[in-house]
Amino acid sequence: MIHDLLDAASAPASRIERVRLFALRLPLVHSFQTSSHRKSGIEHILVELTDADGGVGWGEIASPSDPFYCAETTETAWEIATRYLIPAVLGTASAQPAVCEAGWAKVRGHEFAKAGFSAAAWDLCSRRHGLSLAAALGGTRSEVVSGVSLGIEASVDALLEQVERQTVAGYGRVKLKIAPGWDLEPVRAVRDAFPGLELHVDANAAYPRVEEAVEVFLALDRLGLTMIEQPFGARDFLAHADLQQRIGTPICLDESVVQIEDLETMLRLDAGRILNIKVSRMGGLSQAKRAHDLAAQSGVPVWCGGMHEFGIGRAANVAISSLPNFTLPSDVSGSEKYYAQDIIDPPVRAVEGTVQVPAGPGIGHSVDVDRILRDAGRRFDSAEIEQRERPLARLGAVS
Ligand code: OSB
Ligand code: MG
Questions:
Q1: Domain assignment present for 399
Q2: pLDDT (0 to 100) of residue 182
Q3: What's residue 113's pLDDT?
């Protein structure tokens, strides 16, 4: 029987006894530039939950270091995790995801921080019930089609070289980052050189809401793109709706959709016709599943976006991408596109642009705990704190 892990009553779990956090930095094999900034390495926070029976679950807080994609940073995630989320999960009766999420419900925002804890609870509980995370979430696919996301390069030639490299590696969909000054010329060049490639562009909210900006999108509309992702500001549903009425290419929203209500706004205003579901941006797997279900009911296809996750977050992205309405390629490219050595075994592998959904329990990969213990910078262990003074209950009091 498949337990519904969203329903506490049908999926019993014991309480969480210990939480550890590890801040880990990995170098990127190729530096990545978006409309806002350039990165050569990534620091994420890994969350380990241990329950009273010794069951363990892992999650990843994939917040960027700087508040340029959203307001969160690694620092704010660490603060929220240690002050509020750890006390919340230690104070709840069960490791069941819905119970943990209810435990921190009064904490507003901080979706990336919550998402790491949510994923760890899902991993722990699906393992406990002998289910793969994909099956626990309601996934139906045994493999997931992946695309790759390419940053802004120093020149059009350098970009063409990257596209060549990734198509040779087997990926059939490429997403290009665009920004004012880096849009029509590079996208046309890629379109001309790779006419059959499934191509889309992502502006990460970089365009002002002015008529000259719209001209760029009217021109991009003629290049046969699968979608144009998040041209305008996160709160600017109206600008997206106006543009969507003028172009045939579907607009895809990313930064704009943080809560289910945002998706409802997008649907009501026709501000986009595709949804990028990022587990981190939506505060975790339960919310991501809800967004998937609502989009499915509304006939809006979804795909899973990435935040350069290490293996733990990447595996959770593969699992959610196995749900039926993830009908467009997800950003779940193989680990080696970003990291020389991932922290899970085996790493995520894409063959001909396709990733197998693991059938083993939980995220379906083993976590390289020795490596994490060796290489992590900052760490937090609730067991050490409890031995010292047990301040957690006090810190958990939110008024
Ligand atoms: O908009 O998808 C985005 C990375 C950082 C911030 C925003 C985005 C991205 C990516 C990462 O495109 C793609 C990936 O993880 O494969
Ligand atoms: Mg995006």
A1: no
A2: 96
A3: 98
Report the sign of the C-alpha dihedral through residues 19, 95, 344, 338, in that order. Answer: negative
CATH (domain of 43): 3.30.390.10
Q: What lines the ligand 1 site, CB under 6 Å?
A: 34, 69, 149, 202, 204, 254, 305-308, 331, 333
372 and 361 in a single domain? The answer is: no
Q: Which of 175, 278, 289, 337 is catalytic?
A: 278
The pLDDT value given to residue 385: 80
Within the chain, which residues score under 70 in pLDDT?
Answer: 1-12, 386-399
Inter-residue contact 376 to 74 (CB < 8 Å): no
What pLDDT score was predicted for residue 7? 59
Nearest to 232 by CA among 255, 250, 212: 255
- The catalytically annotated residue of 114, 175, 177, 289 is 177
- Locate the ligand 1 atom nearest the alpha carbon of residue 32 and give its number: 4
Task: Answer whether residue 398 is part of any domain.
Answer: no
Q: How far is the CA of 367 from the centre of ligand 2 (A)?
A: 28
Residues 36, 176: one domain? no
Based on the domain organization, do 333 and 378 belong to the same domain? no
pLDDT value, residue 81: 98
CA distance 203 to 253: 10
389 assigned to some structural domain:
no
Residue 17's domain spans which residues?
2-130+367-384
Domain count, the chain: 2
User: Tens digit of pLDDT for each residue in 75-88?
Assistant: 999 999 999 999 99
Give how far Cα 89 sits from Cα of 46, 83, 100, 172, 388, Å. 15, 11, 6, 41, 19
> H helices of the chain, where?
74-80, 86-90, 97-103, 111-128, 133-137, 156-168, 184-193, 211-220, 237-246, 260-269, 285-297, 311-320, 369-375, 382-388, 392-395
Give the sheet arrangement for strand 251-253, strand by strand. Answer: 148-150, 173-177, 198-202, 228-229, 251-253, 274-277, 302-304
Instruction: Determine the atom of ligand 1 nearest the C-alpha atom of 39.
Output: 5
Per-residue pLDDT, 23: 98
Residue type, 54: G
Q: Give residue 212's pLDDT.
A: 85
